[in-house]
Amino acid sequence: MKQYLREIILAIAVIAILAFAIIAFNNITQREQASLNTNLAAIPPHNHQAILTINRPELFQQMILSQKPAQRTLARHINPIFIALLQNLELQSAQISLHPQGQLACLQTGRATGAAERYIQQKLFPTYPPQEHSKNNIRYLYYPTANNTFFGYYVHNNIIVGSYSRKLLEAAAERHTATSAPRPSQYIAAQQSQTDKNAPANIILKIQHPSPLTSPEQPEIWIAADIFASDKNICLHTKLTANSPQNIDSIATFLANNLTEIPLTLQASNDTAKTSLTACWQKTP
């Protein structure tokens, strides 16, 4: 029996290592699957004013963030820290949402989560250590910034969620970690169904009165647009149903007023069911 003891111990050790490896792989796979199954638009609280969803981050970086006019437009509406995260992290998908309390970034990082956290800690906020705070099994890190403000974030299922608003961040975490899967608001879900998930990015906006698109009878509306590249152009494409109270002229006016850095060329198309508007600008070298 003693002559086989070494072989028996070795076999048990190999089986234990294999079992541990299988369990670890399953846990990683389950976390990644949970991440991929998460609709990022379901994480923020239901008081959105706008959502920029980036379906293909690498293409979005090449197509939009490398263009100076587009950069200037984004900088007017999105915090520079969030733009830096979009430019420098390896992402599977991303979303920036605008709320009355502030802005919220949801970044699907997958296996690159560790590298993403190191970039935040070492490149964006290298001067001071973060303040740590735990609540409901979520660990928050808050980094001091200018004007006595703090940038905070947490990680759950390989998704990094960050904001300058602690209230907004914790409200998102509550939804993100709920026992039942969170759902986007009915308005966002309806607009998401109109967007093309294969487009590099989509944008959903809530337009409030006074605006060329609203009226006292309808003080707010939602519109959605796809962002894509066409030949040497970058384009926004939005669709209206036949019974929509808005018209192409009013949408064109809205785009021109809000994209002042970009020289737009507008093209409308009509059929019996819907009208669409494509606004394009030429890429810079």
Protein model, in words:
This protein is of the alpha+beta class and 285 residues long. It folds into 2 domains: 38-176, no CATH class; 186-282. 37% of the residues lie in helices and 30% in strands. It has a 12-stranded antiparallel β-sheet with strand order 4-5-6-7-3-2-1-8-9-10-12-11, sandwiched between helices. The longest helix is centred in the N-terminal third of the chain and has 36 residues, at 2-37. The chain starts with a helix and ends with a strand. The model is unreliable at 21-37 (pLDDT under 50).
List the helices and strands and how they pair.
Elements: H1 2-37, E1 50-54, H2 57-65, H3 68-77, H4 80-88, E2 93-99, E3 102-108, H5 113-124, E4 131-135, E5 138-144, E6 150-156, E7 159-163, H6 166-176, H7 186-192, E8 201-208, E9 220-230, E10 233-241, H8 248-258, E11 265-270, E12 274-282
Antiparallel strand pairs: 1-2, 1-8, 2-3, 3-7, 4-5, 5-6, 6-7, 8-9, 9-10, 10-12, 11-12
